[in-house]
Amino acid sequence: MTIRLVAMDLDDTLLRDDWTISPRVVKAIRKAQAQGVKMTIATGRTPISTRPYAEQLGLDVPVITYHGAMIQQVLSGDILFRRVIPSALAAEIVQDVAGRGVYAQVYLKDRVITPELNDWSREYARISSVSIEEANLTIVLSQEPEGVEKILLMGEESDLDQLAPLLRQCYGKKVHVTKSKPFFLEITDGSVNKGVALAALAEHYGIDQSEVMAIGDSLNDLEMINYAGLGVAMGNARPEIQARADIITASNEEDGVAEAIEHYVLDRNL
To answer: Are the beta carbons of 138 and 90 closer than 8 angstroms?
Structure first.
């Protein structure tokens, strides 16, 4: 098996728990690039939060952000693909969850907007290194002609696990509901996920599905792990993800991404 395209999740996959990339992982990625393998990031984060890591790695392939709702060139900032939740639908969802007492943030390109900052939003800002605006979401959405890339709901995992099926039942195929962390429930347009975006990127470069490797740890990585010819789950991945992956590598604290690249890309592509 020859791998020509590798997509890596960011949090708890490419990044260690201190949100840095280990020297071994950096070295493995650069070696793969030197062999002509295309390397990219596939994350639920915003483009502005993803860009520093892409630049650190010298990625020249568009990165997948917002769980596949946007594909963007790192260097130029050119948007190759963008799919939004229509403003009217986003407003309906925001009002729905507010009535259930659930905290929400909306994402508009590189803007993160919430009605009121709280402990959840402050923790998110710390993790993602982004600033969060306070504004009336109803007004913001009424002034946005297209829509938003993502709605993020934050809360206790048990509460979010009860809410997720209710949202899927209520909004059906209009939205895609997934989790990136136990306390993050993420909503995007129903037609997009990391797998759809990765397939589009592979097609753009003329790369066969069998030549794609995807590495991830959480539920929002499931579709791209299923799509890839070689789906890799981190050692710290959720059990549901490990069960669906082709192989399990080491954890994010043990250079799992480097281990997978060294064994399944560098060794096989010689």
So the answer is: no
**pLDDT band at residue 18 under the 50/70/90 scheme:** very high
* CB-count burial class (<10 Å; 0-12, 13-18, 19+) for 101: exposed
**How much is the average pLDDT of 229-240?**
97
CATH of the domain at 98: 3.30.1240.10
Buried/exposed code over 61-78 (b: 16+ C-beta within 10 A; e: otherwise): bbbbbbbbbbbbbbeeee
Same domain, 169 and 121: yes
Q: What are the start-end ranges of the H helices in 151-228?
A: 157-171, 194-204, 222-227
* DSSP for 196-216, written as a single string: HHHHHHHHHTT--GGGEEEEE
Domain that holds residue 76: 5-82+192-266
Question: Going along 11-102, which residue ranges are E strands?
Answer: 38-41, 63-65, 70-72, 79-82, 85-86
What's the structural domain count of the chain?
2
Name the domain boundary from 155, 189, 223. 189
CATH number of the domain within which 38 lies: 3.40.50.1000
pTM of the model as a whole:
0.91
| Residue 66 pLDDT greater than 90, yes or no | yes
Q: What is the pLDDT of residue 269?
A: 55
pLDDT at 75: 76
User: Residue 108 contacts by C-beta under 8 Å, 6 or more apart in sequence?
Assistant: 140, 144, 148, 149
Each residue of 1-15: b (16+ CB within 10 Å) or e? eebbbbbbbbbbbbb
Could you give the residue numbers annotated as active site?
A: 9
